[in-house]
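retry 2 of 3: previous attempt timed out while embedding magnesium ion. Reduced batch size to 1 and resubmitted. Inputs unchanged:
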Amino acid sequence: MFYYLDLIPPGVCNLLNSSTIYSNNEVSLAEVDIYGFDYDYTLALYSNALNTMIYNTARDFLIENFKYPEGIRKYDYIPNFAARGLHYDIQKGLLMKIDAFHYIQLGTVYRGLNPVPDEEVLRLYGGTHHVPLHQVSGFYGKVSRYGPKVKQFMDIFSIPEMTLLALANDFFISNDIEYDPEHLYKDVSVSEAIGMVHIKGYMYKWVMQDLEKYIIGGEETYAVLHRLVSHGKKLFLITNSPFSFVDKGMRYMVGKDWRDFFDVVIVQADKPHFFNDCVKPFRRLDGNGDLQWDKINSLEKGQIYKQGNLYDFLRLTGWRGSRVLYFGDHLYSDLADLMLRHGWRTGAIVPELDLETRVVNTEQYAQSLTWLQALTGLLERMQMHRDSQSMEVLQEWLKEREELRLRTKNLFNPQFGSIFRTCHNPTYFSRRLCRFSDVYMASISCLLNYDLSYTFYPRRTPLQHEAPLWMDQLCTADAKPSLE
Ligand SMILES: [Mg+2]
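retry 2 succeeded.
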């Protein structure tokens, strides 16, 4: 019997492709009959114009409400300054990238807009560039007043926040004004200026007033939902955003009947607490979005529910285990609990893959990385030669290796490099991504490239004790591991 391939998945060619779905764990879509989605940055992707608006409004709030110096207004948003997953030392006012082993990547520490020299970083952290666990923000990336002082920014929405912190620090430093970085952090953060944009609903208003400007990729969202439903899949939505906002966006992307696609719709869910508290009951909203107080004994199609918790959700729907695949962009508040406690399959939305795979595909990156690997292999083998001539060569190679590392880093983002790697190691972000997601992709539209009975097989990448020697790896750059 012959089967014809309807869809050839993008991963089968040699180049990386941003339409590919990458897997950390084997997932068979044939087993999945329920698809769940977060809304912001999962179903709805936003243009950079939104970051600029968030930044401008929070900056002006500092000036108008907290009487920050007028000079800060001159600082415009810098679109590609910060990146997701960075850490911020609240007391020292430093933005930096940390690797999976809690080491700061030297060369990626910024005070304001300027890099901090390596020697100073070492001095500031007691002679090391390791940040101990108790100083790093907790499991959900939150920091408390008395808690850790190094916060990780995991939210895509936090990019304007990091940029505002950097630019405000820069203003105070370059104008020689004494200030307390901890206060600055508090004034900028989610509890004040940035939070005001969200809490007062400014962001919702801007998006609703100009959907075309802020929402991107709506047709693809429609196509994905339509395809899943027409294959008999059940869909649900769990979002922290309010109904009026989600409704407006979904009408724009999917059409006025968008709710017909979904079996359950939950708004203002208060994730991550939705996934780990079993306290808040579900509430129903009527057609006008007004709160009803009737007891919820079932979650019905066509209704809108607010708050609730996952335990009640599981009890009322019976949707458990690997029949369910949930997509979200926030590794902590969307995916961590589902992976660690509840056993749903998880899909991480990482829009940054778009740019990063484009860089990895360039000739320049491939050449630099191949030479970097070869050079490291040479260093490893030649280090036992102690005569002066060899030592000189080794020193030259070490210097060249540093230059190569810098060059490959700068191809991604001149300040912080790739969000997935420090020079060689996975980043703190990358490790969490592998831990909390079964599959990851640039956007849900990648699903359109796969048959709905496709199985994602993660590539078997060698462990350290299985790895071949450096020199044998010349043709297998780390982004393109050999198939065994
Ligand atoms: Mg989201």
